[in-house]
Structure formats: structure tokens, C-alpha cells
Amino acid sequence: MPKTVSLFVPCFVDQLQPQVAIDTVKVLRRIGYTVHFPEDQTCCGQPAFNSGFWDEARPCAERFLKIFGASDVIVCPSGSCTSMVKSHYPELLKDTPSYNDAVTLGQRVYELSQFLIRVAQISDVGSWFPHSVTYHASCHATRELGIHDEPLTLLKNVRGLELRSLPHEEDCCGFGGTFSTKFGMISAAMGDTKAGNIEATKAEYVTSIDPSCLIHLAGIIGHTRRSSKPIHLASILAQEAQ
Amino acid sequence: MSTIPLQEFLRRATEKCADLTHRATIQRNIDSYDVAVAKGKQRFSDWEAARSRCSEIKAEAIAHLDRYLEQFEGKVKERGGHVFWAETAEDARQYIAGLAQSRGVKTIVKSKSMVTEEIHLSGALEKQGAAVWETDLGEYIVQLRNEPPYHIVTPAMHLTRVQIAQTFREKIPSEMNGEEPPQLVAAARRKLRKAFFSAEMGISGANFLVADAGMVAISTNEGNGRLTTTLPRIHVAITGIEKIIPRLSDLATLWPVLATAGTGQPITTYSTLIGGPRQPGETDGPEEFHVVLLDNGRSQVLASREHREMLKCIRCGACLNVCPVYRQIGGHAYGTTYQGPIGSVLTPNLKPSAGFEHLAFASSLCSACGSACPVRINLPHQLLLNRRDAMAKTGQSGSRTMFRLFRWTAMSSVRFRVMGWLSRKGISTAKALGIAGSKLDPMRPWTQYRNGPEVPTQTFREWWRTHGRQ
């Protein structure tokens, strides 16, 4: 049985944070998986769905189901986008012919750390990252997908890495999609609180399994002249001893 | 209302987000709440099972609301109490104000009730010349300050001891003999005791209406609830119709869960059950007992299969305390009676034309509320439903056009690449021109508060073309 996974790359990762997806590919290949990237993929539709435009989100979901329909296992380096497919597609496609496909496909899509620990059953991917790191538990991964220990287990097995616990680690960073621009002042205040907690750990890096939290935190940390560097879990796991 | 709720919300939210002292006060108060609740939950052998049980009890009550309310009404009437069904806020105000007038009531004491805030009862009573005293300490403090409650459970959460002392110095100087917390409490107590002894009417809320017993259940911590309901000649209990529960035995779970979710207490200091006026042979209790059952939009919520679960709410305040938005902007920014996540989903449904649709959008959808709710209301889902309903209702032509464009883009990988290229070009051009974050920056809603992202030289799919295909 060949070990193949299909890669689901969030739209903004493709455009703005390609390194997250590149590093995901590196990690998956290192542990012996063949990575397939359906190049027709675009966006899962979450921005429209979360903004109340379900009619605009629905065709995106149906398109996603077609593109990934033949994939046995789908891996995504984002808890939020994974949760859109897994938790929200069935609701969005309720009473449509695609409902059953949405439910069954939802069972085959995994966030990266979830895939590594639960499916590939690998907790040490052979990485080396000699830095202090703190972990931000992102909302949809934590509360919608129930991911708690998986990223921490992976981090604990990275050689040289010193993991520092983050106060209020499960509190929202303030991103929230269009919320971040519609109610920017609240989003930024939440980000400031989060960045303050990160700063208190004095860790060199803050990591997360959600690239959207990291892009927001990078913006806040830069804007408030703090020094921690946001980095995606995949990018830590991709590092090897030279 | 003369102001537009959205504009007012944005103004107050901006102000509160910039107020670091306010943010620190809330953070400190809620942090101590967090510790107490985490400890409180450990007293349950299975907190999750207790939540499920409470959710079932409330769902059962909501499913047969009519039957249980009538059962409650029958029992109260048997003991000589009165039950008034108020369809609107105006009906409730008129009934209570009329009652006060016809009985020559001059002084009214109130124990804590959010429903009386919802219908703006005190103002109506004061207008006809009655003196109305809030007797819950937090409520009394905000009443002295002419402020609405800041939080549905802890109305004065936003104030420090120093601010409270200052309020007392200004408003009740003659009762003051010190500014330490026990002295402040004593000052309020001296003032309120006088009101208790002169009041002809006491108004309370109700945490639960027990159908099989025909009793009103009230949870309080200061004893003011018992004084309010027993000392004056007339006791009026007012609450929303959704507060009904089927059985007295349900309180065995609901009381401790409410207290734990609300404050971390095993049970509130005073748990009171009241079934009617003073009975023959009894030595105390009011001569008259009235229950006002308020609808005020709740039937509309009940009629909606999707939104009905909101009526399970027991007003514990847990969703406010865990909400990161509430923690930044506080309770007054919402401009609603009920604040935080439950207020954001309930208000637009109780008052569909009042213009509070934006509140469902003022959330990062972090789901902390849903995880905290002791009756398992799926609050994040309700926020999403409210967003959908709001967009269907208001049209929002600007947003709709934007998301039509989004859809058009997302439905083709070619268009997606082109639009992606344009967006990245836009970000890097703004940076190169040095206008990032300025009013000329098209990304300003983002860059006003944050640095813009670094724009990479190639996208992932470009990388994939050269490195990906094996």
C-alpha cells in the first residue's frame, strides 16, 4: 500500500506564507509519504461562510469535494481550514446532494499534527531546532477539532528545542477572519494581550498550527515592537541538523 | 434611540480598547473568576455530565413551555398568588406600575433582575413618583452612578474599590466612615436597611420557575433577595417565560451548576423558593404575591427551530467571562441589556428591528463561549446563524458584491492566481510607496493596527511546479 496524502493548502498560505506548505511537504516526504497537490484547489469558502454568505460559500465547498473526492487522506497545515471542511461543510451542504460526500470527506481530512500523531503515528519526525519556543493553541484546532496534545508531543521531540508554556495558551489571538478588519481595534487589543503573554515567556519563537493566527501575530508583534518570532509548527518540524 | 447602535458600538469599543486601565481591571477581575470556576468544577465528579443534564432539563422545558407555564400558574393561583402574562415590555411596566399606584406604594426595593433592566422598569416607576432602590450591592453601586449593569451577574465588575469609594463619597457621604471594602459594604447596608424597612413593594427576578411546585427559585449571595421578597407588603417576581423548569428535583443539578458556572461557588449563599403570599397561620411573608411572566420577543425565538436553544440560557454569565471580546471592550460597549456572546445572539432575535445585527460579527468565532456554556448552547453556531440571517435581511450590497467577487475568484484556479497576484502586488506596492498603514493604503483596515505581511517572491503553487512534482 503506497503511502500517499493529498495536500490541502489554505489560499492565503499559497499566496502569502508558501514556506508553511513547502515545509509541510518536506516533513511528509521525510517520513515516507508521497505528497499529491491537486493544483486546481483555491479556497475552502470559509471567509464567505463566516461572513454570513452561505450561498457564496456553498459552490466553493462543492468544488472542494470534487477536487479532493478521490483522495484517501487529505492533510492541511491549518486547524481552521481543516475545521471548515470537517465541521462546517456538513451544515453548509445540509439538504443538498453533496451532504453525504461532505460527511465522508470530512472523515478523511486532517490537520498536520493530527495526521502525524493519529494517522502516521509518528511523534518524532527527526527535527532539530535549538531555540526556545512557546505554543499558541489556536481556537478552531483546540475547540472544534479537539487538538490538544498533538502539537506539544511533536514539539517535545524536536532536538534542541526548549518548550515554554504560554499563559492563557488557549485564549484567542484576535485574528478571526474578517473580524480582524471589521473590528480591527478589538482584534488588535486581543492580539496585544496575546503578544504580551508571549513576550512574558521570553521565548525566541511562538509557534502554532494555524498560519492565520501567525500572520496576525506577526503583524501585531511587529507593530508593537516586540521581539518573538512567529513560526509555523511545520517550519520547526522541517528543520534538520546540518 | 437617537444613536445608531453600530456607530455607537464602534465608538465605545475603540475607546475601551485604548483604555489600558480598564482592560487591566477587567483582566484582574476575570482572572480571579477563572481560578474560582476551575476549582469549582473539580467539585463535580463529572462536570461534562452535569452540563449535559442541565441542557436536557432546559431543552425539555422549552419543548413544552406552554404546558409547564400553565402548570406553574395553576399552582401559584391555588396559594392565592397572581400571575400576569406580559406579552410586551410595555404590558409588564403597566401592570407593575399600575399595581404600585393602586396600592399607594411610595418606596420600592429591588433585588437583582436583568429582566427589569430589559423592560426599563425602574424609570417607569420613578416617573410616577416612587423611590426605587437597587439592593444588590453591585446594582446599587451602578444605580448611584446612573450606569446600566456592566455584566449580567457582576454589575460593577468594571469598578475598582477606589472608584466605588469615590462614588459613595459623592452620593452617600453621611453613611461613610472609611474606604476599606468592609466599611463600604457597611455604608451601603446602613442606607439600604432604611429602604427595606419603609418599602411597601419588593421586586425580584427569578432564576427558575418550578412548574411542578409552582414556585419561584431565586439565587442570591447577599441576603438582599430574602429581605426584598419578605419584608414589604407586596412581592412582585418578574422573569422571562424561558425560566421555567419541569421539576423541583431539577434544582439539585441546576442550582450547583448555575453557581459554579457563574462564580465558582458550590451553591449561592441563599437559595430561596417562594410559592405564594403569606398563608393563614404563617407569621411572615408578603400579603400579596405577583408573578409577571414576560414574553417580549421570546415566543419569536421559540418559533425558530434554529434559534430556540438560546432560550435554554440560565444567565450565569460564563460566556461573558470567557469571551476575549468582552474582556477587551467590557459590558457597556454593547449597548444592550444582555452583554457578551449570549447578548450578541439574543438581542437581534428579541428585538429584530433595533439594529444590533453587527454584534454577531463582533466576534472572532473563537468558540470559548460554547465550551463554557453550562447548558450547552452552541453559541458559536448561533453567531454564525445570526450572521447568515443578518446578511439575508439587510442585503449589505457592498459585502454581497465583495463575496460574489470572492466566489467568482475561488471557482477557477486561473482567476485565483490572477487575483492573488494582484493582491500581493497591492501589498508590496503600498510598502514600496511608503503608504502602508496610512489612509491611502488599500490594506488600511489591516495595516492600521498591524504590520502588513511580507510578500514572498513565489507562491506555493509556483514552487510546486519546480520542486513538487516527483
Strand content of chain A: 5-15%
The parts of chain A where pLDDT drops under 50 for at least 5 residues are none
Total domains of chain A, how many?
Answer: 2
| CATH architecture annotation of the largest domain in chain B | 3-Layer(aba) Sandwich
Output the helix-strand order of chain A: EHHEHHEHHEHEHHEHHEHEH
Distance between the termini of chain B: 65 Å
Radius of gyration of chain A: 17 Å
- Poorly predicted sequence stretches spanning 5 or more consecutive residues of chain B: none
Can you describe this structure in just a few lines?
With 242 residues, chain A is of the alpha/beta class. Chain A is 50% helix and 12% strand. Chain B has three domains: 1-42 and 314-395, no CATH class; 57-296, Rossmann fold, CATH 3.40.50.10420; 407-468, no CATH class.
Provide structural commentary.
The complex is a heterodimer of chains A (242) and B (470). Chain A is an alpha/beta fold. Chain A has two domains: 4-119, 3-Layer(aba) Sandwich (Rossmann fold); 132-237, 3-Layer(aba) Sandwich (Rossmann fold). Chain A contains 13 helices and eight strands. Chain A has helices at 11-16, 18-30, 46-50, 54-67, 79-92, 99-106, 112-119, 139-144, 150-156, 179-182, 184-201, 211-223, 233-237, and strands spanning 4-7, 34-36, 74-76, 109-111, 132-135, 162-164, 205-208, 229-232. In chain A, the strands form two sheets. A four-stranded parallel β-sheet of chain A has the order 2-1-3-4, with helices on both faces. In chain A, strands 6-5-7-8 form a four-stranded parallel β-sheet, sandwiched between helices. The longest helix of chain A is centred in the last third of the chain and has 18 residues, at 184-201. Chain B is 52% helix and 10% strand. Chain B has 22 helices and ten strands. In chain B, helix 2 (20-41) runs antiparallel to helix 12, helix 9 crosses helix 10 and helix 16 packs parallel to helix 18. Chain B has three domains: 1-42 and 314-395, no CATH class; 57-296, NagB/RpiA/CoA transferase-like (Rossmann fold), CATH 3.40.50; 407-468, no CATH class. The N and C termini of chain B lie far apart (65 Å). Chain B has helices spanning 5-18, 20-41, 47-63, 65-78, 89-102, 114-118, 121-127, 137-144, 161-171, 181-198, 224-230, 251-263, 298-303, 318-322, 324-329, 340-350, 368-372, 379-394, 397-410, 413-432, 444-447, 460-468; strands spanning 82-86, 107-110, 131-134, 201-204, 208-210, 215-220, 234-240, 244-245, 270-274, 288-294. The longest helix of chain B is centred in the N-terminal third of the chain and has 22 residues, at 20-41. Chain B has 470 residues and is an alpha/beta fold. The interface between A and B is large, with 68 and 66 residues.
